[in-house]
Design brief:
Helix content is 20%, strand content 37%. The protein contains 4 helices and 8 strands, in the order E-H-H-E-E-E-E-E-E-E-H-H. Strands 1, 2, 3, 4, 5, 6, 7 and 8 form an 8-stranded antiparallel β-sheet that branches.
Length: 161
């Protein structure tokens, strides 16, 4: 059996709308990221609709990126305030402006359990990733505690507002 989905959850002492607002602003993703790879939002726009693309500057010490720097273009898949938000990462691999998206998805599901508490579930889903990609990128491509770290960072940001 292949494991191709990771999930983690946390309960945050805030309404779902407050949590969703943090997630819908890519400028916050640097502080949320549990890997340290995300560097900055390159577009500066809030997420507002499915299909929207937002770009992030990234850094990872990896042979595929000689100086460690690269850019990701993320396409919003689900935008359902304040219940769910997800995106599919991609890149301009050919350098011609054509974006190619991987088949993995980052998704946050928000379940407001009281007026001042929301359970947030973060899912990293690789179920649609084809075999050729799996041959070159291991699952998961980050430490398993990344999701827990990201949720703890999210909770700290929301609490600080």
């Amino acid at each position: 059996m292949t494991i191709d989905t990771l999930t983690a959850s946390i309960t945050i002492p805030a309404p779902a709308q407050a949590v969703f607002a943090v997630l819908a602003d890519p400028a916050n993703h640097v502080a949320i990221d549990g890997t340290g790879w995300v560097r900055e939002s390159l577009d500066g726009a809030l997420l507002t609709t499915p299909g929207q693309v937002f770009r992030m500057a990234m850094y990872r010490n990896n042979p595929n990126f000689p100086d460690g720097n690269y850019e990701m273009a993320n396409q919003v898949q689900v935008f359902d305030p304040p219940h769910a938000i997800s995106w599919k990462p991609g890149r301009d691999t050919a350098g011609d402006g054509t974006l190619q998206f991987g088949e993995w998805i980052w998704r946050y599901d928000l379940d407001q359990i009281t007026p001042s508490e929301t359970t947030v579930t973060l899912t990293y889903d690789w179920s649609a990733v084809p075999p050729p990609v799996r041959e070159h990128i291991p699952f998961p491509p980050f430490a398993p505690d990344h999701l827990d770290n990201s949720l703890a960072h999210l909770a700290a940001i929301v609490k600080g507002r």
